[in-house]
């Protein structure tokens, strides 16, 4: 999708403008960017993983957060009007990144056997339950976590896009192509178009936050000593 | 009087409506309990809010699976 290229260009331009003349006392744009970076580092990564363990992963989560945020916001910008994340490709790539990261980190930290045993066999479960529990845990670890990560984002942005299209097309049709009696309804859809746009801004930020936060939580499962 | 009505439209949308009920109840309970917890102990509000968002993300997926199903089928 062309939108993604446009968004990437805009994001690089924004970052370049913000850090071009980076000062110790930040200006307005730099301050804004630093607020965002600080939010990801402190509120999401360090709070979930803890200060020391978070260090190698701050970069990764920052990239994920800002990519998703910018791509989501493209959904409400006029003439772009579709989020880069409203097709499965982009969220799938990011979810695979998280998936591979938490597997590799877990195996590297605990060793393959210990890691998969800790993840798949919960402590304190009676032996006869294991044939039921282990497949469920395996499904959770290998399929459900990465897939829901991608699906949540894509479905949210898709739903938002459909909602916006519905209000815009409704306004257009009801105001210009229907009977006079329907014009008040058109005015209603016009107003709800604004409301939906504001709601989409909120959802764009929230989904970027949720994706990053859940990625950090999943990574934390891999880092923990015992599950 | 015409008696044989024809219903147009996709049944899967009705299915989505049904699928939204469960997560709706779940979100209601979770957010309400979080409100209560914050009211009882305002000093841990930040941590509770983060946990609430995590839970909301997990519950939300159920409704969104219904949405995806309604679009695909």
User: What is the terminal-to-terminal distance of chain B?
Assistant: 35 Å
Q: What is the count of DSSP helices of chain B, taking H or I runs of 4+ residues?
A: 3
Q: Tell me, what's the shape of chain A? A: flat
H and E string of chain B: HHH
Main sheet characteristics of chain B:
none
Radius of gyration of chain B: 19 Å
- How much of the sequence of chain B is in beta strands? under 5%
Percentage of β-strand residues of chain A: under 5%
Describe the global form of chain B: elongated
Secondary-structure-based class of chain A equals mainly alpha
Average pLDDT of chain B: 86
* Percentage of residues in helical conformation of chain B: over 70%
The helix/strand class of chain B is: mainly alpha
Low-confidence stretches of chain B: none
Q: Which fold name fills CATH's third level, the topology of chain B?
A: F1FO ATP Synthase
Q: What string gives the helices and strands of chain A in order?
A: HHHHHHHH
- The CATH class label of chain B is Mainly Alpha
- Radius of gyration of chain A, whole Å: 22 Å
Low-confidence spans of chain A: none
Total beta strand runs of chain B: 0
Oligomer: heterodimer
Please characterize this protein's 3D structure.
The complex is a heterodimer of chains A (227) and B (73). With 227 residues, chain A is mostly helical. In chain A, 79% of the residues lie in helices and 0% in strands. Chain A has one domain. The model of chain A has no long low-confidence stretch (mean pLDDT 89). In chain A, helix 1 (2-19) packs across helix 2. The two termini of chain A are 40 Å apart. Chain A has helices at residues 2-19, 28-49, 51-54, 58-73, 89-110, 112-120, 130-176, 183-223. Chain B is mainly α. Chain B has a single domain (12-72), classed as Up-down Bundle (F1FO ATP Synthase). Chain B has helices at residues 11-19, 21-40, 45-72. In chain B, helix 2 (21-40) packs antiparallel against helix 3. The two termini of chain B are 35 Å apart. The chains are: A mainly alpha (227), B mainly alpha (73). Chains A and B meet through helix 2, helix 7 and helix 8 of A and helix 3 of B.
